[in-house]
Design a protein that fits this description.
This protein has 322 residues and is mostly beta strands. It holds the Pfam family NHL.
């Protein structure tokens, strides 16, 4: 029997062994995923083939990016099917075509800004676009801010600093926008998503989240959002139940309307997650989840050897909407 997650209008069937990779290929960690206008799924991963492209059935189409990226982290796709690839290993954002041609690079490869300087970039994490095509970059691990760029890569504005107050950040891990121009920032280690206007003015925050890591706007007016929450990161609460890893579906005000998994901690069983790090939807409403299970394995299972399937296909999941 297939495993079903969620409830009511938000029920999903776990599609096991969905991704069909060429023999001998490994994804290692899947940092992020994106879906284009033809429902092709782009898998930004930390294996030997950084961008793997699959169809809705999980069949392999092509790969690219070999030798281009240092460490995959964020992936966003625009209405014209351009991909914004955020590389936290070399501190850049690259805008690429669907066949891998680099159209724009923001940041200087392998030259990070000083730690917590507020200057771009120090281990940037993700991107989102305004309705006008301006580029927001969350930055990230070595900074605590958001940068706003023009469509052609000119810095317009920066906001944020380290801390826990409104407008401050503790690991700016993901970013999303809606059609009205609001900016949503996954403030991971502050256990919240902060909401800003298009110029960085703090508006509100969503609480009742546990280490929000992935963030996906489902589109339309008053959209729902899917939040990928990491499980415990400290040994003291490693085995505490009901902390994730999991997916939460919230409305445009941040009110939770469904929750998928996470009651009994991480695992390889169908219906469980390891470390949801990137989320995307296709035109049918199916959910694709990239997970950094290899990186997170020792945090979740310090005394258990990692099974080889974690790095092959288990870091990419599909949930089929019912």
């Amino acid at each position: 029997m297939p495993v079903i997650l969620g409830s009511g209008e938000h029920r999903y069937r776990v599609v096991e062994n969905w991704a069909k990779l060429p023999d001998g290929w490994s994804l290692t960690d899947v940092a992020s995923v994106a879906v284009d206008s033809k429902d092709r799924i782009y898998v930004f991963n930390r294996g030997a083939h950084p961008i793997v492209v699959l169809d809705r059935e999980g069949n392999f189409i092509k790969s690219w990016g070999e030798g281009l990226f240092n460490r995959a982290h964020g992936l966003h796709i625009d209405a014209d099917d351009n991909l914004y690839c955020t590389d936290d290993g070399d501190h850049t954002v690259r805008k690429c075509s669907t066949d891998g041609k680099v159209l724009l690079t923001i940041g200087i490869p392998n030259k990070p800004a000083p730690f917590m300087s507020g200057e771009p970039f120090h281990r940037c994490t993700h991107t989102a676009l305004s309705p006008k095509g301006e580029i927001y970059v969350s930055d990230g691990y070595g900074n605590a801010c958001v940068h706003k760029y023009s469509h052609d890569g000119k810095l317009l504005k920066t906001w944020g600093e380290p801390g826990t107050d409104p407008g401050q950040f503790n690991i700016v891990h993901n970013i999303a926008t809606d059609s009205d121009g609001w900016v949503y920032v996954a403030d991971r280690e502050n256990h919240r998503v902060q909401v800003f206007d298009g110029n960085g003015k703090y508006e509100t925050q969503w609480n009742y989240l546990h280490r929000p890591c992935a963030l996906c706007c489902c589109g339309g007016k008053q959209p729902n959002f899917i939040v990928g929450e990491l499980g415990p990161g400290m040994a003291v609460n490693r085995k505490v139940p009901n902390l994730g890893p999991r997916l939460s579906i919230v409305d445009s005000k941040g009110k939770r309307i469904a929750r998928l998994g996470g009651e009994n901690g991480p695992g390889l069983e169908a219906g469980k997650f390891l470390a949801p790090h990137g989320i995307a939807l296709d035109s049918k409403g199916d959910i694709y989840i990239g997970e950094v299970g290899v990186t997170d394995w020792k945090t979740s299972f310090p005394d258990t050897p990692m099974p080889p399937e974690v790095g092959v296909t288990r870091c990419l999941q599909k949930l089929e909407k019912i």
